[in-house]
Amino acid sequence: MDEDYAAQMASLIELMRIIGNDTQQCEVKECKRKLSSSITDTLSAFSNGSGGYIILGLSEKAGFTPVEGFNARSMQEALSQACEKMTPPVRPTIVTCPFEGTNLVFARVEEMLPRDKPCFITALGPHKGSFIRTGDGDRRMTDYEVDRLIEEHVQPSYDLETVPDATLDDLNPHLVLGLLRRQRELHPHVFAGRGDDDMLHDLRVLDRKPEGTTFRPTIAGLLALGRYPQKYFPRLNVTIAVFPGNSRAEVFVEGERLIASETIVGPVPVMIDDTVESLRQWTGAGDDDRSLDGGGPADYSLTVLREVVTNALLHRDYSPDARGTQVHVDVFTDRIEVSNPGGLFGAVTRSTLTTPGTGSTRNQYLAALLASTPYPDGGYVLENGGAGYVQIEHTLNQEGSDPATIRNTIDEFRITVPRRRPPEDDRARNVAQHIVTLLKENPSASVRDIMHDLDLTPLAVANALKALIAKGLVESVPARPQPQRYYRLKR
Description:
- This protein is α+β, with helices and mostly antiparallel strands.
- Helices cover 36% and strands 19% of the residues.
- It is built from 17 helices and 21 strands.
- The protein has helices at residues 2-19, 39-48, 72-83, 126-129, 143-151, 173-186, 188-191, 196-202, 219-225, 249-252, 268-283, 302-315, 364-370, 388-398, 424-441, 447-454, 458-470; strands at residues 26-29, 52-56, 58-59, 65-66, 86-87, 93-99, 102-109, 120-121, 131-134, 137-140, 206-207, 216-217, 238-242, 260-264, 327-331, 335-341, 405-408, 412-418, 445-446, 474-479, 484-489.
- Helix 2 (39-48) links the parallel strand 1 and strand 2.
């Protein structure tokens, strides 16, 4: 087991030597004589974020080389004691690993469950002692971020709020009829002899608040069954933007135009259908594994696109602070990104997202309604029992595509679905071409710059740069005094 940790540590150090800095997932500390005072900041940041690695006994200033005279045993004990200064206490895996003739301390900090966040320095309290990882550093969380995490400790009920000005006329009779019919089929003993209004009240489509007033639709009822929910919540919709390349910079920096932009409105089942149909037209997606023109494999699966759009509308944050934010669908030449306000909720983390049986939803009333809400063309919105991300992973694996990638923060969740995998040599050639184009437009760029501008992984950039240097197209330029290299086209 220690050999596995040693291999992980060596790979991380090699990556940082290429990048010239810490990464978002890894923090190094020299700790020659004592433990760094900021180590608790990092413990908090990794616990509140997506987890990460800590390596003690390594010098960033000296190009990520071991610190002479480092006492691994004493620093391992000091790190364990620092973990006890946190609320909740942090429980990382801490091991001593050999590296280049000496021993380093290597720790893996897991992301805490949402119900345990924020993790903070006990002596400072949650609002002053909570941190989050930003770039390669630790940032103190804002009061807003801390309060949002604390709110997640209980089940939200924003979707149960009544809409004061809405009436029964704002509900779509076809969707209402479909919901009632389905519920009576599923639960004949529960709803036998019950009138429609009483059923809609029990199902929390309607409510009386304050008591004694006429029935009003709830937010969940309006979103699932409404004619036009945007009459009351104009930003609870979906926006689609089709970009001309694989970067937003081509539009927002270079003065190009979007190929298309579209706003999708209506209740959730209609927005899902209309969004997926629009994506089908723009990308040639299909469920029969063929493109629209029949000339080859489809770029995307309709099953995957339907799941990511459904999940975004179901799990998004419907609190008052987030009702001005839309679900965004951005289409690039190599991927589709779907983002919604609100991060993962409950017992779900990035590591458990695709594990069957670990699902949680912040919008429990909306989820219950959508399970029996019909699509306009048949079927029901939630028919997979909450296994949406498992379905996405399985479908992409079956069709030979790269896996979807996840970006989860306190206020946003984003899933990126890759275009069907091109041949390996084509993928590598495309990355190299994009880097050359970037370096033509800039005198030089670091690996971090290239990663940010082209939205690439560190290893993809590093591998492409090695190939370009070997071909004599690119050269490195040391930037002093930082242990970071910049790259430019060879003159």
